[in-house]
Amino acid sequence: MSTILEIAKLANVSYSTVSRALNGQKGVSEAMREKIVQLAKELDYYPNSSARALVAKRVGVIGLIIPRTCEYTFTSPYYSHILLGISSMATQRGYQLMLIINEKNSYAIPYHRRQVDGVIVVGNHYDDQRIFDLAKQNIPCVAVPGFVKDSPGNPMSTTSDNYEANYQALTHLVGLKHRRIAYILGHRNSKYSVERLEVYRDVMNEHGLEIREEYTPYSDFSVTDGFRLTGKLLDMPEPPTALICTNDSLSMGALNQIKARSLRIPQDLSVIVTCASDILSLHEPPLTHIHVPVVGVGSAAAAMLIEFIETGEAPGEVHAIPAQFTVRKSTGINPEAA
What is the pLDDT of residue 153? Predict the structure, then answer.
């Protein structure tokens, strides 16, 4: 690979003149700048990004931290679509990504080692102290999905606004005469679980329906848990007549359990899935669903972080993108009320 010294020798100028010309700095005539740029092209010269970063005090890299296991991260439709949104925006803005699968260590380590300009933490629990430590150290960071309550001490966050779509979904089931409605949630300390349980209780209370804790089990978001918990719900003395699952993986597990029992959708059980991908789009019957705009959430997270890195000003504390509820063929009248 060619060096600045070779270009300087051919142009008959100093090393510093070549450096200023290639970095767009003052002190070089336009004619000389054009000559140096042309020589650099002919010699196939590329600036050393590490050296340039020392001058700019930026490395052009965003850290994407996922506090999960590798197995879970790389098999989850949610994380693959978040990554798509983040990477697309980062590439568009000229940044690279460093993927960090981190269950235990401080989130600040890559920043202090000058490996990244800022970090996006995806899949955080709302009480994860490591995120608040980033904000206290003034490290550029964005949390996805963020926090249950807005607070001046919170880092920036992007999320999907799930309340309205879930309200519509639950009200839809109540309108179909369902009274025993189950909702398989995610982790107990996940922001999404807290929000979805809140709207579940709101709708049930609004219509005077009994709230039974056993109908809203927590899970680890996996296919296996979707299968297991759906079986547990269906084995109850009074099983639910309608079921909502909180993500793609849980939905796949639930549908497999329903199929294994030869139950019909929606004649025997109405089902609403929550999806971030199109992995369930070919299911028969077509599934009534809540679509979570995960790619958009990832893209917004990257845009917020980059703006903060480049301007030093936070573009706002929370950016929420609405989820969408769509009625298809997997929900029907409660057979007990028909």
Answer: 59
**Residue 213: Cβ-neighbour burial (10 angstroms; 0-12, 13-18, 19+):** exposed
295 touches 84 (CB < 8 A): yes
Contact yes or no for 24/18 (Cβ under 8 A): no
Question: Which residues have CB under 8 Å from 12's CB, separation 6+?
Answer: none
Identity of residue 310: E
How many other β-carbons are positioned within 10 Å of the β-carbon of residue 227? 19
Of the candidates 186, 202, 183, 200, the one whose C-alpha atom is nearest the C-alpha of residue 273 is 183
3-state secondary structure 91-153: HHCCCEEEEEECCCCCCCHHHHCCCCCEEEEECCCCCCHHHHHHHHCCCCEEEECCCCCCCCC
Cα–Cα distance for residue pair 271/265, rounded to 1 Å = 7
Token pair recorded at residue 203: 């709708």
Candidates 265, 246, 249, 305; CA nearest to 118 is 305
Whole-number Å distance between alpha carbons of 278 and 165 = 18
Spell out where the chain has E strands. 61-66, 96-101, 118-122, 141-144, 156-161, 181-184, 242-245, 270-275, 288-291, 318-322, 324-326
Q: Which residues of the chain fall below pLDDT 50?
A: 1, 49-55
Tens-digit pLDDT profile for residues 117-151: 999 999 877 777 888 888 778 888 999 987 756 55
d(CA 255, CA 218): 17
